[in-house]
Queue: 3 jobs
Job 1
Amino acid sequence: MGSRLIKMLLKKGYSIKALVRSGSENKLPGGCEYVIADPFDATTFAKEIIDGSIFIQLLGVSHPGPRKKKQFQTIDLASARGSITAAKEAGVKHFIYVSVAQTPTTIMHDYQKCRAEAEALIHSTKINSTIIRPWYVVGPGHYWPLFFQPFFKLMEWIPSTSKKAKALRLVTLKQMLNTLIYAVDHPPKEGVSIIEIDGIKAIR
């Protein structure tokens, strides 16, 4: 998602500085500046953030699943803490965070809990922020949920499961990228703006 988003933002005329680990800088699109740092340690990159800039936090566990509880703590939450701390210190004007739908579930409770903790930290900083809450993003390497789409649609029509099924609908990679671009272009005037799944699907 990150590389695709960078290309779209560069095309729109934004200047981009990406945080990468050593050895990953060659994977970035051309025209993108970079900072080699530890995403879990705000002191390694806070001074590289331009005052009044937009910070987009995308780092997280790939292919999240119930067995990755520890990684949600050590990667998702830890990187969010580092980014939020650095953004606050640097005077970022708009913080964008990709969270997860908070409709109660049992299978992904630990993942939701870590993302909710990050959201609470964002609120505490008083930085103008946008929080985007997808459930599952369908795209390259992540198409398998489409096989269950008919079942999901059926659940939306059953009264007892309709509310939860609608709250946990799939979104596409294109919809997520469009939403991120929208968030960049439309920062909240004050406080925290939250874009739920309905909002993600509505943005073109």
Job 2
Amino acid sequence: MESWLPFFVIIATVSIVIQAGILFVLYKKIREVNEKTPRAAAELHAKITPILARLQALMEDTQPRISSMIADAAEITHLARSRAQKFDRVFSEAVDRLRLQLIHADQVVSGALETIEEAGSKVRRTVWGPVHQASAFIKGVKVGLEFFRSQRRPADGRGEQSDEGLFI
């Protein structure tokens, strides 16, 4: 076992030296990055500052326009709503007037039809009633005359046939 000990000591020494080298290289790189970081931050700041200034100026310039557009849109919405309400009111009034006119027209037509019906009824009673009575009177006279004619004729088979014709 003693023969392996120097070998392990050499390997441990070499690995410690390699680790020290790696640590030294890391130290150098970190120092380099540390030196470059403020420069990169300064460059980034120099590039971003004008962009931010332009954006802020643009926002300050457009903010009144946007506010004006929003106010205009609100006013347009208000006007549209009031016009729609006015249109609804006018339309409702027109529909109500039309309904009243239709009711009035219906009453006029109904009255005219009732008057026409009444006139027709009166015509039937005044004109057709006497016409029917006169017609009935004429038929009665005719039947009476035929009856008297049949009485004057001698009684043969024809008289009975004419009496039968009178009965329905």
Job 3
Amino acid sequence: MSTTTSYLTPGARAPRRLTTVPDRAGRQAGTPATAAGRVELSRTFAATAARYLLLVAPAASAEIARWEAAAAAIPDRSLRSSARAALRKRGNIEGATLFAVLAPAGHRRAAIRALVALQSAYNYLDTLSEQPSEDPLANARQLHLGLVSALQDPGAPHPDYYAHSPRRDDGGYLLAMLDECRQAVAELPAYPAIASTLTQAAGRIVDFQTFNLSDSQGGHAALARWGTELTPAHSGLAWWEAAAGGGSSLAVHALIASAADATLDPSEARRIERVYFPWAGALHSLLDSLVDRREDRAGGRRCLLDYYATDAAADRLAALAVRALDTTRELASASTHTVILTAMCSYYLSAPECDTAEARAVARALTGALGTPLHVAVAMSRARRLLHAIALRSYS
């Protein structure tokens, strides 16, 4: 398939080809080459799923329930509705807590508290930034500064996140979430060693959310300039792929969970960041765009996938998956990170919105890159969605 782009934004450039050529064994570059490697990955997959369901999911559910109760008490009706809608995106909150399987038992609960609070805040702030404002760019930046603030020391002063928002009476809801995250990350033993890396990753999210505007708010011209500046040299990435990587929360989640390990070396933290920015993060954000394509069009927001030429997106997303898998090999917990990456893909590919020809092409391409584990993960994600539907709970 062609990998040339459609030049929908001034300054757009054709991405250089990312290698996805099968090797002599007939596999894609990122998948295990040997039978022993496949067995090891299968064992890790099963162990990770068991650890998550038994040790992480119950604690995550308790945290989500706590924030649901807090959201119900927000005085302003509009903000209360936004907070509840953000918490109904339970799937991506639970996805964030999957990283807690990396955390040692002694600090796992603190990691879960931080992950739930941060992703819930991200969902809430994203919802608010899409609402009308006299200055959409300033409003988006001011709101999303909360994501950086959430990673500062407890007691650090908060700016006025609602400075450009028409409503602000949330009864302390946003500050409570941000302070909860601050207190939780402060309990993680390796946090001081990676604080600057983590803050930088959160800052990229703020920039992405500031510039990712709907057409009525100004469009993607500023996002294109920022994405071009952000693109790593010799990466072969297009600006929208680099921007997608910067807007992903995966690097932040991975670093928070890793900070729970007192033996974490700063060099390992930098390797973890290289997995999730730009490779896995770009894949994450672009899959999110795939699921939200109809909603974005209805809301006048341009989908990042629109910048690909016809039929190019599937190959590019598969190439990103291969690069992400290849970089995980540098990590101490390589197999677990591979499982997390596969689970992330399965969450999006199992969504009801992935019923289009484009989505099916992406699923086939990613299966070629990730192999049989993706089939299993998609089946598990569909089962989980079904259980939530039976319980009349949203799992978007």
